[in-house]
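#structure-requests
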Amino acid sequence: MDLFEKCRTFTRADETKASGFYPYFHAIEESEGPVVMIEGRKVIMAGSNNYLGLTTHPKVKEAAIRAVERYGTGCSGSRYLTGTLDLHVELEARLAKFFGKEDCLLYSTGYQTAQGIIPTLVQRGEYVVSDKDNHACIVAGNLMANGANAMVDNEAQTIIRYKHNDMKHLEVVISKLPAEAPKLIVSDGVFSTSGEIVDLPNMVQVAKKHNARILIDDAHAVGVIGKGGRGTASHYGLEREVDMTMGTFSKTFASLGGFVVGDRSVINYLKHFAPALIFSASPTPSSVASALAALDILEQEPWRIDKLMKNARRMREGLGKMGYHVGEHDSAVVPVIIGDTEKVLVMWKHLFEAGVFVNAFIRPGVPPGMEMLRTSFMATHEDEHLNKILDIFEQVGKQLNVIH
């Protein structure tokens, strides 16, 4: 068997493209934020993670341009060696203060951040206790930790999973681990597909009882929930109980990169032992400058969060009244659960042709029966955009007998 045989026999994507129902890799040619140009047509973007609408904000764009003029286009080295700019140091200090933590560390992407934390901290005889529905970046970090420990001890089992957002099951699985063993509970703050918010208060109780630390991935929570958009811990008033919060710049912060905040000693350890930091080129000047500008706006214009949540709540209510099965969770992600792959793809195409772009989530990205059209909203969506989205969802849903 040739290594590439599986590649040659993978035909599903080409078959779906030929049918006209392929929902992925459509190139955006222009972007105004809530409206984008795709394949020569303007469509309302109802699937972006640009929650505060800052990717097209003049101050953010200007900050990126000024950074390129001052520092060039890249750092040409890792943070560990030649790749640290004063911009990196400034943003780390600002984020640590924003989240009320002692220190912060930047990574080159949000996806890379989990790989720069979990396998660095969790070593032989230690455990990751992870939600079954955690984002793929956490899964990758878990597997790296497990693989590294298995190289030392073939019997090692580092990863322990618990049922999605089920704190009773978390307690069951964690109680079976050695009481003296160090443990890290890892969870999304806002789950990316469902928009569900983690049951942090009960997680904290379990962590205290079983000698565990907590890492929350707030990629979809920062700028969305919590006081001033400070995320999940702030949402529950449990800032001191969450040991580490990680996040990304690719959503609220209108850029590219990732970060983790926590105790100074932990951040210092990660700086000196995380391969994902030491062996990766540092975030580019324009990326960091854009994130700094976005943080300025987040702090100075909290009304954007209020408008974002008002928009998301209106859409959740409107789609629900039509008869769609939508998630009831109070975040910017509003999943429209269809429960059938073919119907999702057909409906995606009809919505796109009518002028609305959403995300099609099918297996294995979601469990069977949870196939969905994931919508997400922005502070820059105006009533005219939201009204049109609702009208088109109603028309297409009735046309395809998804709603009546």
